[in-house]
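I am still getting used to backbone structure tokens and would like to learn alongside you. Would you supply a protein for us yourself, any chain you care to pick? Start from the sequence, derive the backbone structure tokens from it, and show both lines together. Go ahead whenever you are ready, and we will take it from there.
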Amino acid sequence: MVVAALVEAQRLVVAGDAGLIDRPTSTVPMSVWWLLPQYVLFGVVEVLVMIGLQQFFYDQVSDGMRVMGMSIFLSIFGIGGFISGFLFLVIEKVTTTDNTESWFSSNISRVHIDYFYWLLAGLNAIGLCIYLYLAKSYTYKKMRNVPSM
């Protein structure tokens, strides 16, 4: 999210320097390669999270609850979608005033998606702190020894 916020801030600077603030259909003279770092990071994180969560819910639930653990694993992504939609609505309501546009304006050169990315980075930092606390206090289920071949 930090990388995305920095890239978006740079895009807004380039759009302002090129005089494209009030021309939302114009192309900003900025290479698409600026997006590569954030998408590479997102892909790596997505793979690690998916595999880690799946392994956790498969290994740490009791044998009788394994199907329930996998359904909880999959429902996390659906709940995340609902929460992100709710967050979008709240931000739209809070940031819209009479004389200014919201963070999610229809004019791409006047939006502040960088603020949104910074907010998400802050929420992720809080989530990381909570995760570290819970992971430190969690008692892991002992794994059965699997005979080697």
